[in-house]
């Protein structure tokens, strides 16, 4: 796992510029927020997520994360059908900032177009992007 100024960047994930990560496994993917978003949000009051069975489109707004500081949009990094929602996050929204790459995942989806993974950031490109984002946003 890479680290940039204290911000963790798992190198096996894909990243969306709206600070979402994607962990694809076969034809499904798990989605959450990245570590920089975690730092910026500090504490989460509420998470509004899509419903299981909902079809989502790449870059579409599908939910909200509300913190004491601001409200952040959840966007779909990939097109697909929502297959699971992290119910633990609904019961304890702060889990998203406590464990963003583990138990704080938001939802899972069935991917309808794997080619969209090419639109996400990965590898050295993701690290360069996160370095620029840290310089821009980090407290």
Describe, in plain words, how this protein is organized in 3D.
This protein is an alpha+beta fold and 139 residues long. 22% of the residues lie in helices and 37% in strands. It is built from four helices and eleven strands. The protein has helices spanning 35-41, 87-91, 95-98, 123-137; strands spanning 2-4, 7-9, 14-16, 20-25, 28-33, 44-48, 55-56, 61-67, 71-75, 80-85, 107-111. A hairpin with a 3-residue loop joins β8 (61-67) and β9 (71-75). The protein is globular and about 40 Å long. The mean pLDDT is 94.
Summary keywords:
6-stranded antiparallel β-sheet; 3-stranded antiparallel β-sheet; OB fold (Dihydrolipoamide Acetyltransferase, E2P); single chain; 4 helices; 139 residues; 22% helix; alpha+beta
In short:
With 139 residues, this protein is an alpha+beta fold.
Give the overall shape, derived from the CA principal axes: globular
CATH T-level fold name: OB fold (Dihydrolipoamide Acetyltransferase, E2P)
Number of strands: 11
Order of helices and strands: EEEEEHEEEEEHHEH
Low-confidence stretches: none
Percentage of residues in helical conformation: 10-25%
What is the secondary structure topology, with strand pairs?
Elements: E1 2-4, E2 7-9, E3 14-16, E4 20-25, E5 28-33, H1 35-41, E6 44-48, E7 55-56, E8 61-67, E9 71-75, E10 80-85, H2 87-91, H3 95-98, E11 107-111, H4 123-137
Antiparallel strand pairs: 1-2, 3-4, 4-5, 5-11, 6-8, 7-10, 8-9, 10-11
């Amino acid at each position: 796992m890479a680290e940039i100024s204290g911000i963790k960047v798992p190198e096996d994930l894909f990243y969306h510029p709206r600070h979402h990560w994607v962990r694809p496994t076969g034809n499904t993917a798990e989605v959450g927020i990245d570590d920089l978003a975690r730092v910026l949000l500090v504490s989460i009051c509420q998470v509004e997520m899509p419903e299981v069975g909902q079809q989502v489109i790449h870059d579409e707004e599908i939910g909200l994360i509300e913190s004491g500081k601001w409200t952040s949009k959840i966007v779909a990094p990939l097109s697909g059908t929502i297959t699971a929602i992290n119910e633990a996050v609904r019961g304890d929204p702060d889990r998203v900032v406590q464990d963003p790459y583990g138990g704080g995942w938001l939802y899972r989806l069935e991917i309808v177009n794997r080619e969209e993974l090419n639109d996400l950031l990965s590898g050295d490109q993701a690290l360069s992007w996160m370095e620029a984002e840290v310089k821009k946003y980090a407290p």
